[in-house]
Amino acid sequence: MGLHSLMAYTFIAITLSSTSRVQSIGINWGTTASHPLPPSKVVELLKLNKITKVKLFDSNPQVLESLTGSNIGVTVGIPNSMLHTLNSSIKAAESWIHDNLTRYLSDRTRIEYIAVGDEPFLQSYGSQFYPFVVGAAISIEAALIRAKLANKVKVVIPCSFDAFQSESGLPSKGHFRSDINKTMISVLKFLTKTQSPFFVNISPFLSYYQNKNISLDFALFKPTAHPRNDSHRSYKNSLELSYDTLITALTVAGFPQMDIVISQIGWPTDGAPNATVSNAEVFTKGLLDHFRSKKGTPLRPRATPIEIYLYTLFDEDQRSITAGNFERHWGLFTFDGQAKYQVDFDQGAKRLVNAQSVDYLASKWCVVNNNLNISNATAHATEACISADCTALSPGSSCFNLSWPGNVSYAFNSYYQQHDQRADSCDFGGLGMITTVDPSVGNCRFNVELKASFSVSFHGSNFHHHLVSFVLTILVLQRL
Ligand SMILES: *[C@@H]1O[C@H](CO)[C@@H](O)[C@H](O)[C@H]1NC(C)=O
Ligand SMILES: *[C@@H]1O[C@H](CO)[C@@H](O)[C@H](O)[C@H]1NC(C)=O
Ligand SMILES: *[C@@H]1O[C@H](CO)[C@@H](O)[C@H](O)[C@H]1NC(C)=O
Ligand SMILES: *[C@@H]1O[C@H](CO)[C@@H](O)[C@H](O)[C@H]1NC(C)=O
Ligand SMILES: *[C@@H]1O[C@H](CO)[C@@H](O)[C@H](O)[C@H]1NC(C)=O
Ligand SMILES: *[C@@H]1O[C@H](CO)[C@@H](O)[C@H](O)[C@H]1NC(C)=O
Ligand SMILES: *[C@@H]1O[C@H](CO)[C@@H](O)[C@H](O)[C@H]1NC(C)=O
Ligand SMILES: *[C@@H]1O[C@H](CO)[C@@H](O)[C@H](O)[C@H]1NC(C)=O
Ligand SMILES: *[C@@H]1O[C@H](CO)[C@@H](O)[C@H](O)[C@H]1NC(C)=O
Ligand SMILES: *[C@@H]1O[C@H](CO)[C@@H](O)[C@H](O)[C@H]1NC(C)=O
Questions:
Q1: I need a labelling partner for 351 at 20 to 30 A (CA). Which of 194, 345, 373, 397 fits?
Q2: By residue range, what is the domain housing residue 375?
Q3: Residue 144 pLDDT level (bands cut at 50, 70, 90)
Q4: Is 240 an annotated catalytic residue?
């Protein structure tokens, strides 16, 4: 063995043994919100809560700048809309690395992963990204090698929860979806060659929501849930079931030893029945206990994913609601950085710390003026909800119990806040009225938005998402 290959071998050995010991919990930080918290405040919040890893969905310059010197491990994302360009061009990959990575790297900025695409194999996208995913990953890897960063930054491909399945519901029959199984082999070859882990999103909530064969208790890690038996193996919760379905799929594909990172896992708190704060709390506690117990799963006993990333840091009021109204309510924290429930995120620190000195707009709300003839107010509310966030009004959600015209006021207020409380955004044909009395009732919170100091530009696939949610909102609110 030559010295060079010996050194390479030593490097690999160290990397492998350290990754198998490291066990960390990170969080997904998305910014698809009308009034997101300023990135510097978010980084402060992460530090206060001793959160040491974040996964981003893009490479927003303000976000990356705020993470500079923070010592927080970062995953940056490449949107699906860029995959085509990157597949055919190493030059494009080199500029991406230069613009979106190199300039932010420093001794205390740890960019650990580049996620190529955001769930490019999600079934609802069809096959549009298949031809470009691996090519884009190869280009990015080549550009990293040229920039001498390949030993610091790993290239990964986040895989959606619906990329693997088992018709019988039994993990021993798991396999990748047949339309992606060829592409998946190339993905796995690439990851093996570059010694990168398999990033997978697992969603017990969606498994429960879409598949009535899974009980809520099973999804929530309740010890009283009926186990699902797969010959001699017994599954006590939905996470273990999904995880081992993936292990079988990887094994069948010829890659039984892949390291796994759970890149998204969480429970929403609004926008659907059973998407509640108390269920989310039970879920997250169950998840963290399961992860920390290191007992593993029946197919990988005493082994755990090397990292998990909770989904997600904040509620985001501009996210696509194609999959459901719950999509805007995955946050561990509310849009303004207040913990929705308490979890032991950093072992020992029993309470989450809220965002500090948050800058809100004035304490003003827009409601329907009951002194007028408001028989026409519903049409105005429906129109407001096209851009406003009315997901909390849907069945089973926190504001569903508002009777008419309370739900009209809710829609008016959401629109008014999203437009920075401009007086002309509380008109609604003369039916709107500004008040300083908080109209919130019970769990139904009428938000006051944050002062906008940070704006997110919408481009590419986000624009498409906007159109989809626009149409869906109209459909949902026909009932108003
Ligand atoms: C993707 O890139 C590869 C080269 O890396 C090329 O052979 C292939 O044709 C490209 N695919 C498409 C669909 O452009
Ligand atoms: C950097 O990433 C952003 C999107 O995250 C993209 O719009 C931009 O084109 C990228 N820069 C290059 C040179 O590719
Ligand atoms: C539904 O669950 C039961 C056990 O709880 C199992 O026997 C059955 O195979 C499952 N069916 C499907 C379609 O997953
Ligand atoms: C991919 O799926 C098809 C159809 O289900 C199957 O015939 C084929 O064997 C699968 N290939 C691999 C490599 O799993
Ligand atoms: C499932 O397995 C457990 C533990 O092995 C056993 O106690 C239980 O009776 C089994 N349940 C069914 C329905 O087979
Ligand atoms: C889910 O929520 C609905 C509506 O609140 C409720 O009827 C149902 O019982 C819940 N499901 C479970 C399994 O508890
Ligand atoms: C309110 O307006 C509606 C429709 O314009 C009309 O039918 C109704 O009579 C009015 N009600 C009152 C109390 O004026
Ligand atoms: C209600 O809307 C109809 C049609 O736009 C309009 O003719 C009517 O005057 C409105 N009524 C009130 C009370 O605003
Ligand atoms: C809404 O009202 C129903 C019936 O009065 C009640 O059972 C339910 O708990 C209420 N939901 C909320 C979120 O307040
Ligand atoms: C608003 O309240 C009215 C009356 O209770 C109801 O008919 C309508 O469906 C509600 N709309 C929504 C979106 O909750």
A1: 397
A2: 365-475
A3: very high
A4: no
